[in-house]
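re: ur question from earlier - yeah i can do the single chain one, its not a big deal. heres the input i used so u can compare w yours
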Amino acid sequence: MLVKIVLRLRQKLSKSIFKIIIDSLNMKTYLLFIVTLPFVSLTAQVNDGKKDTLFFSVDKYYTVSPSIELKLSNENYNKKLAFEKMQFRQTNTDGYIFFSGDSASTKNIKPKNIISIKDYIENRKFYHDGNSNKIVDKWKLKDSLTDKYVIFFDDCNQLIQAKSLEYISYYPIQKDSKIIENRRKDTLFFKLDNKYIYESQPVVNPKQYYLKDSGKSKTGTFFFEEFDEQTRPRFKSKKILDLENFVHSTRFYNAEQQIIEDRNLSNYLSNYIIFLDKEIENKHDYIQIKPSVTIE
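and the output i got, formated as tokens:
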């Protein structure tokens, strides 16, 4: 009997000691986790901040910057226009690169490979979607270049780090009293369903069409407006798109909040020729429209 009591006491004591040891180990592990967590987070932030570097050569006409002395600021207006015409002719593109930079902290950097930014930018992957479009998509450029790389320009062996960079279109071009728009655009056809897109009431002149999502962003209200002078589409076969599906598939639609970025959507669609397909008694009437936005 005495032996059994002793054995039971030993088992209980062993369990207690084992529990103390386990609790101690768990506490050490917990403390170790707390101590190491800030370092893990810090390392992740540092790694996320690292970018690869690209070195571009300066093109006299394609790259314009206040960091490069063009000495045009004091010249008269006619000479500036002459330079812009020469710029347009020399680049043979729809726009050019404008950047601001800093050359103070780049003396010890030695680039291994310097490439042409014109060849890099004027690449099909940066154009707006379509077959004939040669307009650079600024959102693609942002995602695949400016947000992804640290950018330097080599100007006569002097390196300039680009602090900001954007693609500027030559269009619209003012010629005398006329405004010349970029004609190298792809064409989109959308169905006028009177549900997602509908004509404004009361009717105004020129007619306006609003979206079910318009105006919810509180930064403006997106709408389409008819052209005063209508142009017939030049295509026999037309792919009619559902406008709601199109808009909701873009980066300008927030599915969680169910709102569109009114101004950005207008800017994006301005790079296309757009027609509404209005069907009446099995007959199709194509209405040429342009995107616009009211600023609030």
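The longest helix spans residues 2-49. not sure if urs matches, ping me
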